[in-house]
Amino acid sequence: MLNLARVIATGRLMHHAGETRSFTGRAQARLAQMMGVEQALLVNSGTSALIVALKAAGIGPGDEVLVPAYTWVSTASAPLFLGAIPILVDIDESLTMDPADLERKITPFSKAIIPVHMLNLVCDMDSIMAIATRHGLAVIEDACQAVGVTYKGRRAGSIGHLGAFSFNHYKNVTSGEGGAVITNDGHLMRRAEVYHDIGTFSADYSVQDWDFVGCNQRVSELTSAVLLAQFGRLDKDLQNRRRRRARNIDRLLPLSGAKVSPHHDPDAAVGLTLTFENSQDAKEFAAQHSAVTRIGDIKRHDYVSWLPVLQHCGADPRTNPLLSAQRKVTYSADMCARTIDILSRTCLVA
């Protein structure tokens, strides 16, 4: 509340580029320091963060972007905004992108990978980065659901070429809405800054750099003030979740007949899911425990619910890359059946 009062008292609710002592400038510096990267850019949503990151990486019409079949629809729709085509990749029992299926899905049109750290569960970033290096692909980490979580001593979002965060109501840090892009690459950040600020951004605002036309995805000082106040509590909150995870394993695992789902960094694990032999066992266990949800019953994150994507629906067919691609693009409800099977057999423990 104190930060918000200070913003209102100044009468300046809009962030101006280059103002390092503004709440936005301070929040960006604090976020970069926390994540162990050179630069951070606050934007108005996690969806915007993905779009800005893809644009920074040079993704455009006809390019293929590999995304997991289990994620929020923004991961798949962000490439479409830039004329690119999302290619769906199965997950494995870790609920993150399966590196083996990822490599199978790569084609000469592939340009980027968006691994998603779902439910505070980290991807196998060593394997994904190795695949990306072999094929010359950009990696944009979608860490929207894992802000602050670590993978082998590094923060999720800091391992790929760019990282994207969300700060909406349901995330580890929230300002209602909001997002961020992080990177160690100054050229990529420069492109991100230009694109998010209508092509007018400059560290010295007296100089106009019209590199290319952009959008307005800026964040307000009010949002930045809320975020800055919360960043200091993030690590403590995550540590509390780790302790709760350990307690839940001790309490629920003996009752479940299941196994703890594979995790790519067990010592730093925050999220907890249980994998069952079949979907019925998972459904019955979830019905018996209020803190447990069968993930297959949460339909909004599996690819089958992305009807505008699967059905090639756009506001205008003339600008729909799924219709204008020089090759046939086909999606179906059973194209990632392994993902649906895994989700039906997995329970999330809150």
From TrEMBL:
Keyword presence, Transferase: yes
Stretches assigned to coiled coil: none
SUPFAM superfamilies per UniProt: PLP-dependent transferases (SSF53383)
GO molecular-function terms, A-Z: transaminase activity
InterPro entries the record matches: DegT/StrS_aminotransferase, PyrdxlP-dep_Trfase, PyrdxlP-dep_Trfase_major, PyrdxlP-dep_Trfase_small
Keyword Transferase: yes
Domain of life: Bacteria
EC number: 2.6.1.-
Keyword set, alphabetical order: Aminotransferase, Pyridoxal phosphate, Transferase
Class of the enzyme per the UniProt entry, highest EC level: transferase
Family label: Belongs to the DegT/DnrJ/EryC1 family.
PANTHER family: DTDP-4-AMINO-4,6-DIDEOXYGALACTOSE TRANSAMINASE, TRANSAMINASE
Protein name as catalogued: DegT/DnrJ/EryC1/StrS family aminotransferase
Lineage of source species: Bacteria, Pseudomonadati, Pseudomonadota, Alphaproteobacteria, Sphingomonadales
